[in-house]
Amino acid sequence: MSDHIPMRVAVVGATGFQGGATARLLAERGHRVRTISRRPEADRPEIPGVTVAPGDLGRYDDVRALFEKATHAAVVLPLVYEAEKVMTYAQHIAKAARETGLRRVVYNANTRIPDRTTNVAAFETRRLAETVFRESLAQSEVELVVVRPPVYLDNLFSPWNGPALVDEGVLAYPLPADAPVSWMSHRDLAEAVYAALTVDGVAGRAFDIGGSRTLTGEELAAAFGEGLAREVRYVPLDPTVFEQSLAQVIGAPAACGVAGLYHYMASGVEPDLMAGDDGATAAALSVKPLPAAAWVAAQPWHMWAGGQA
Length: 309
Description:
The protein folds into two domains: 8-150 and 186-207, Rossmann fold (3-Layer(aba) Sandwich); 153-182 and 212-275 and 288-307, UDP-galactose 4-epimerase, domain 1. It is built from eleven helices and nine strands. It has helices spanning 17-28, 60-67, 83-100, 121-137, 162-168, 186-198, 217-228, 239-250, 252-267, 280-285, 292-297; strands spanning 8-12, 32-37, 50-54, 72-76, 104-108, 143-147, 170-173, 206-207, 233-236. It has a seven-stranded parallel β-sheet, sandwiched between helices. Strands 7-9 form a two-stranded parallel ribbon. The radius of gyration is 19 Å and the shape is globular. Keywords: NADP. InterPro entries: NAD(P)-bd_dom_sf (IPR036291), NmrA-like (IPR008030), NmrA-like_oxidored (IPR051164). Belongs to the NmrA-type oxidoreductase family.
């Protein structure tokens, strides 16, 4: 499959950070991109080159309309962690993909997924969706590729982290200091999804994508120190404190779901879950994630100076 042939891509989740990064990259490269959103038109982010129509993943006809005349789909589910609702979303997406004859679906699971079953909804609902996609598309002509990212550097360019990093040299995050993490950016995610949409020989595979290096908290702080040209120290944040702060922004149910990942990592049950794979995935998808220090150096951190946005 050549990435020089324009695709018509339905991006599920394009009004969010991860799906938005993918939608922007696709539009930049000349592909036709469209999505649906439940938000009122005035509240939707404007994404150049992306058509946004009203719609809901819970209504099959809306998903079918999104996929009509599309050639590919890139899917990331919203921050919903109710198993029944996630299953409905996944079933609608899979059915619409089959019935409209998509060539390939790339599913971004939004997280790495442990091999063993857990009691963490953020893992198990994403495992459930992947299972639905695999089973529903197995007997069709629709190819499925799954990407499972670790943790995003963009999470740290925020009102919660930015001022402390710039003014105090403190990098606080709800991961153990010794946890090896393959940090990556939203742009790196978009590059990986783009490759998964276009590269030959990857159909049916799942990739634990990640950054160019695996970093502990101390090593991540050193990368930020290099990028910011100042000393930075890493402080592991209590996941409960993180959850309480996040709930004020996205609501308690979604915050509980997101924080479940960090509670799991804090337990130490599977310390290498978010680590890298020695470059195997980057080689298979022909992507080159940006080193953390280079990503840090490219961000406009001055906007957080003095605690101001």
